[in-house]
Write a structure and sequence with these properties.
This protein has a seven-stranded antiparallel sheet, covered by helices on one side. It has a single domain, classed as Alpha-D-Glucose-1,6-Bisphosphate, Chain A, domain 4 (2-Layer Sandwich), CATH 3.30.530.20. The chain has about 100 residues and is mainly β. The longest helix is centred in the first third of the chain and has 9 residues, at about 15-20. It has one helix at about 15-20; strands at about 1-10, 35-40, 45-50, 55-60, 65-75, 80-90, 95-105.
Length: about 100
């Protein structure tokens, strides 16, 4: 399942990149989020749960104008997900194009 959100905003590109670079800012997008713990510079353990609690490994990949979070849990329940933020300022405008892809397998 994949969802795509496209937004044009007046916020600067640097502000959006800094905001989405911090995984604690996007935890509100994770259903039934409980806690997050940093294991190294780009890897986190995220605990989600409702009836059962699951601790998943999340890896952050940072590029020039893109931030991607890869989530993987191989045990039951199996979760493989990707949250991709692509931020591009149009050359001729003072706006920023923001595109977010959610992919859940």
């Amino acid at each position: 399942m994949e969802e795509v959100f496209k937004i044009i905003t007046s916020l600067p590109q640097d502000y959006l990149l800094d905001y989405f670079n911090n995984p604690e800012n996007i935890t509100m997008e994770i259903p039934f989020f409980k806690s997050i713990k940093r294991t190294n510079e780009n890897t986190y353990l995220v605990k989600v749960g409702w009836l059962i609690s699951v601790e998943t490994k999340v890896v952050k990949i940072r590029l020039k104008n893109r931030i991607t979070y890869m989530m993987e849990h191989r045990d039951f329940p199996r979760i493989i997900a990707k949250l991709d933020h692509k931020i591009e300022p149009p050359f001729w405008q003072k706006r920023t194009n923001y595109r977010r892809n959610n992919f859940l397998l």
